[in-house]
Amino acid sequence: MLQNIRVVLVNTSHPGNIGGAARAMKNMGLLRLVLVDPVDFPSGEAVARASGATDILDAAQVVGTLEEALVGCSLVLGTSARDRRIPWPLLDPRECGVASCEQAAQGGEVALVFGREYAGLTNEELQRCQFHVHIPSDPQFSSLNLAAAVQVLAYEVRMAWLAAQDRPTKVAKLETTAMLDMQPVTADELESFYAHLELSLVEIGFLDPAKPRHLMSRLRRLYGRSGISKLEMNILRGILTETVKAARGEHHRQGKSDV
Amino acid sequence: MLQNIRVVLVNTSHPGNIGGAARAMKNMGLLRLVLVDPVDFPSGEAVARASGATDILDAAQVVGTLEEALVGCSLVLGTSARDRRIPWPLLDPRECGVASCEQAAQGGEVALVFGREYAGLTNEELQRCQFHVHIPSDPQFSSLNLAAAVQVLAYEVRMAWLAAQDRPTKVAKLETTAMLDMQPVTADELESFYAHLELSLVEIGFLDPAKPRHLMSRLRRLYGRSGISKLEMNILRGILTETVKAARGEHHRQGKSDV
Fold first, then answer.
1. B226 vs A225: CB contact, 8 Å cut-off?
2. Of A132, B69, B169, B252, most Cβ neighbours within 10 A?
3. Which distant-in-sequence residues (6+ apart) come within 8 Å of B140 by Cβ?
4. Boundaries of each tRNA/rRNA methyltransferase SpoU type domain copy (chains A, B) (predicted)?
């Protein structure tokens, strides 16, 4: 699906930005780069900044006009600073990611079009785009580096793609031990822990049963919101057991941490 | 609010990346940059890549250790590649943006921590972070350029900030005592607590300094994600103090709970 989404860079001046854009694309799983009338390409500087994404540079299509770059596209999205004379349908990067993935999933071809480093896209070029995308930046300092802008849009495409596949955006590739580690305790295990904790606090003289104040409530609130795992609970219970032993003088200074 | 969010770059090799990060920050309205032991700074290359964000470079704080960079922070988020041995609470960039803005809106100080270009953050550095943030990238080509990673996280912070401003003011009309109760601890207070905890565990014989295993890491993970308040920290420190006394036989069974 992502192979249906191409990145189009128009009339880029600095080859380093082409390399940076290629890297950002590959990081996010986008592989098709089209360069419209680049000022300096191919270039060693592009290769250096691509940092391993040279396959994207090698396969990049170089064309003379935006029209050629957009052949076959059913959805064209152009990045734009705001305040154009004619108001145009405007998406934020997140909406752009979702729209691109939806179109690509339906088999359409999508182009994300980026303009020149200083001047952006011309009004004529912008009017070839169905939608404009504006990356929300500080109005006082609004011009992003070209590769950074590609990074933001490619990132949002990937987020939308992961969501569409029902894949987690956070990798939960946990091994079995890690799974056990993260298994949450049950409410009754938590209650046993609080009882053990209270007893231990009395034992070390920190909690006066005659004047308990809000101590246990506060500790319940703290541990309750922490989402303690079974393994962590074992550790905490182990600490309490040793604490009580130590307080009773049954202390035999030896390592007990078996975790 | 955004002024409560700092970007921390650890041991950056290439000054161009520092400049690129500064530009990405300023585009998104983040102004505070902290550099931990940068390899080459100040540098003309940083100024060139900053492309006008030189005020951020000029005001950047240069420190020797990550610890210094995190002074005063109540929320520390560290960028990480996947597959660490101990699973840690993980956020995607969007969740990171929301969490950062929420914390900053409550008056907390937030640090977004980025590691070295090739090696990232060390395990020790990652354990100083309450949460890890992973930018979902193609597993086949997962390493983002440093400035690009800063761009993605700064962008998500801005998106969350904009969304938060659109909302009707959620009045957090807390009373004074409740405010104090909920005031988050800072990273350095958390570190002192871990040191005290470790010492206490050795004292009661639960932790063998010769065979520490993953005990302290697991406890850091647990307490780090809990969002401990200053008042709760006082309680925990009080428990540790009494535990050590009890283990040393300085125990004089009397109520100490004054909370």
1. yes
2. B69
3. none
4. 5-155
For chain B, the average pLDDT equals 89
Q: What is the ipTM of this complex?
A: 0.80
Rg of the Cα trace of chain A? 29
Q: Which of A63-77, A95-109, A204-218, B146-160 has the highest mean pLDDT?
A: B146-160
Contacting residues of B for A226, CB less than 8 Å apart: 222-223, 225-226
- Whether A145 and chain B come into contact, CB under 8 Å, resolves to yes
- B29 CB neighbours in chain A (<8 A) are 137-138
Task: Provide the 3-class DSSP secondary structure of residue A242.
Answer: helix
Chain A residues near residue B50 by CB distance under 8 angstroms: none
Contact B137 A254 (CB under 8 A): no
User: Minimal CA–CA distance to A112: which of A164, A69, A144?
Assistant: A69
Per the structure block, which two tokens stand in for A121? 């896209």
Taking only residues 157 to 196 of chain B, the set having a beta carbon closer than 8 angstroms to any beta carbon of chain A reads 158-159, 162
List the domains of chain A with CATH numbers: 2-164 (3.40.1280.10), 176-247 (1.10.8.590)
Q: Can the peptide bond before residue B42 be classed as cis, meaning omega within 30 degrees of 0? A: yes
Higher-scoring residue by pLDDT: A72, B181: A72
For residue B256, give how far its alpha carbon lies from the nearest alpha carbon of chain A (Å): 4
| SS3 (DSSP) at B229 | strand
> Cβ atoms within 10 A of the Cβ of A155, count?
28
Token duo for residue B195: 């040191």
d(CA B8, CA B63): 10
Yes or no, beta carbons of B259 and A214 under 8 Å apart: yes
Pick the closest to residue A154 from B168, B181, B128, B152 (CA basis): B152
